[in-house]
Amino acid sequence: KAGVTQTPRYLIKTRGQQVTLSCSPISGHRSVSWYQQTPGQGLQFLFEYFSETQRNKGNFPGRFSGRQFSNSRSEMNVSTLELGDSALYLCASSHFGNEQFFGPGTRLTVL
Amino acid sequence: GENVEQHPSTLSVQEGDSAVIKCTYSDSASNYFPWYKQELGKRPQLIIDIRSNVGEKKDQRIAVTLNKTAKHFSLHITETQPEDSAVYFCAASNDAGGTSYGKLTFGQGTILTVHP
């Protein structure tokens, strides 16, 4: 099976812009979770989607949003980018309570 | 919400020695505890996990122990090798009776260096 894929792998934006990141889970996985990884805060949970519904949400401002499509692919959007949003954004997919498989991440740099 | 503390933040050992990383969690309802290894520039990869109905689990040179009463769990790596050098993260999750452990709360990570 193909692993979790994320696009784009690298992104450079300026403050105030918005960005959309994409995640394709492993075939058959219906749960997709998103995490933000920074040197200072480590790995922090953003949200989880299951069957197109947001099931869990972390402590991030409303500028961070996401969605999941009927094929389980997921997108996350960050509006009005701030310098502090620079991070590695990881998505992970899982199948009914088993291991979460991570994608390679999208490295977002906000200038 | 859940809070996971991980210690030490850095760990340096000689090849062949054992390494132990400890984590404590705050939410007594947490019932799934995975450990991830992340090499530089790569994605986190699960190396071992344990559920709350089990006290210990082993996989070759890696073992995890769980003490639910004290709310802590530990990763043990024996006979360390240079390729074990990486950042290790513990995590905790509560599926609240559901079918997914999709919300992981991670510890801050431990940088393990194994010297040849």
Average pLDDT of chain B, to the nearest integer? Answer: 93
Q: Return the string of H and E elements of chain B.
A: EEEEEEEEEEE
Counting copies of identical and different chains, the oligomeric state is heterodimer
What Rg of chain B is obtained from the alpha carbons, in whole angstroms? 14 Å
Terminal residue distance of chain A: 37 Å
Ends apart, CA distance between termini of chain B:
41 Å
User: How large is the share of residues in beta strands of chain A?
Assistant: over 45%
Give Rg of chain A in angstroms.
13 Å
* Number of E-state strands of chain A: 11
Task: State the low-pLDDT regions of chain B, or none.
Answer: none
Give me the strand/helix succession of chain A: EEEEEEEEEEE
**β-strand number of chain B:** 11
Structure explained in plain terms:
The complex is a heterodimer of chains A (111) and B (116). Chain A is mainly β and 111 residues long. Chain A contains no helices and eleven strands. Chain A has strands at residues 5-7, 10-13, 19-24, 31-38, 42-50, 53-57, 64-68, 74-78, 87-94, 101-102, 106-110. Chain A is globular. The termini of chain A are far apart. In chain B, strands 2, 4, 5, 9, 10 and 11 form a six-stranded mixed sheet that branches. A five-stranded antiparallel sheet of chain B has the order 1-3-8-7-6, with no helix packed on it. Chain B is globular. Helix content of chain B is 0%, strand content 53%. The chains are: A mainly beta (111), B mainly beta (116). The A-B interface holds A 31-33, 35, 42-45, 48, 50, 55-56, 58-59, 90, 94, 96-97, 99-105 and B 1, 34, 36, 42-46, 49, 89, 91, 95, 98-109.
